[in-house]
Design brief:
Radius of gyration: 37 Å
CATH topology of the largest domain: TIM Barrel
Strand content: 5-15%
CATH superfamily of the largest domain: Glycoside hydrolase/deacetylase
Distance between the termini: 92 Å
Structural class: alpha/beta
Oligomer: single chain
Helix content: 40-55%
Largest sheet: 9 strands, parallel
Shape: elongated
Number of helices: 12
Order of helices and strands: HHHHEHEHEHEHEHEEHEHEH
Length: 348
């Protein structure tokens, strides 16, 4: 065994010496053209036909030239790099719009046209009464529907609303002032944050497809900032909005939501505090007025027979009256942008 190992080491050393000798001879024969010297050397050492390699390698010079085709007029939006790189710039439709804006061209209608005022109608307290809930689902798809989480049929109705094209919202029970009962699994100020978050997660699981929440009652909970903070963090993680039903003037929902990057806005009008046709029509007129003044308005109603009857007729004529019916998330975005613009103007 020892003899075999000694013999193998000697062979490996001889092979290494032979390699360096071959390389040295290649350099001597080829000079800077090492590749061309290496080939005849190999052909002289190896049997004929063993190697068919052909070398044409040349040492690099002082410059390396790359074939790079650049357009005659590279975009002014191209990134600033050592070698100019062409960029596609803005898409054609946006370049055309920017060009018209820079020149001040375009028809007067294009320059002054504004979208029609937006109105969002939210029907909440859904899920407890089957006929009322089914009637609300029969309203136009742009009407937003908010479902309580605890009724047995809540998940079934929420899925039916989604199939009908409605935006679905979790109508989350929250602690009110006084002794009114908001229902089981409500968020409360005397509970720990983990307990409230567990209740929120359970409620969301009961309303499939919910894109946001609004408060059921909650006149006490929505004023308690420490209790609201974990809720806002959870909504941020889930990318959900918070429509403040504004059951109290002291609510902290919207500013706190914005601090946590949660889309949020407050309700403008309650449609049916009085369940009478004339009153509901009057409240819809108030909603239209606020939409004209501010660009968007949000009204909340309930699945009472008179409310649904008035809404059915109103929705059929809303576009003819110069308004657009939108899901509540759209109205929240419009109101948020309006508030941001007003704040920017006030700070100047």
């Amino acid at each position: 065994m020892i003899r075999w190992l000694t013999k193998r080491v000697a062979v490996e050393q001889a092979a290494e010496v032979a390699f360096w000798l071959v390389l040295l001879l290649a350099v001597l024969l080829g000079g800077v053209r090492v590749g061309e010297g290496f080939v005849p050397l190999m052909q002289a050492i190896l049997p004929a036909g063993f190697s068919r390699a052909e070398a044409g390698v040349r040492m690099p010079g002082t410059q390396v030239r790359l074939a790079l085709r650049l357009p005659d007029l590279p975009s002014r939006f191209a990134p600033e790099v050592l070698t100019p790189v062409p960029s596609h710039g803005f898409p054609p439709w946006l370049r055309a719009r920017l060009h018209r804006a820079a020149l001040g061209t375009g028809t007067p209608a294009q320059a002054t046209a504004r979208p029609a005022p937006a109105i969002a109608i939210v029907i909440d307290d859904l899920g407890n009464d089957a006929p009322e809930t089914e009637a609300a689902i029969g309203l136009p798809a742009a009407v937003t529907l908010a479902f309580l989480p605890y009724p047995d049929e809540a998940p079934v109705f929420a899925r039916a609303a989604l199939r009908a094209g409605h935006q679905v919202v979790l109508h989350m029970p929250m602690e009110p002032e006084g002794t009114d009962d908001p229902g089981p699994m409500a968020l409360r100020t005397d509970l720990s944050a983990p307990e409230n978050l567990m209740r929120l997660g359970w409620a969301l699981s009961r309303v499939p497809g919910a894109t946001g929440i609004n408060n059921h009652m909650g006149s006490r909970f929505t004023t308690d900032r420490p209790a609201l903070v974990p809720v806002m963090e959870a909504l941020t993680e889930r990318h959900l909005f918070f429509l403040d039903s504004r059951t109290t003037a002291a609510t902290s929902v919207v500013p706190l939501a914005h601090a946590f990057a949660v889309a949020s806005a407050g309700r403008d009008v309650f449609l049916d505090d009085v369940q009478a046709r004339g009153y509901v029509e009057q409240q819809l007129a108030e909603t239209e007025k606020l939409a004209r003044e501010n660009g968007a308005a949000i009204a909340i109603g309930h699945p009472h027979a008179v409310t649904l009857s008035v809404l059915k007729a109103w929705c059929a004529a809303v576009a003819a009256h110069g308004y657009r019916l939108v899901p509540v998330s759209v109205a929240i975005r419009i109101k948020t942008e309006r508030d941001a613009q007003r704040l920017a103007v006030a700070r100047r």
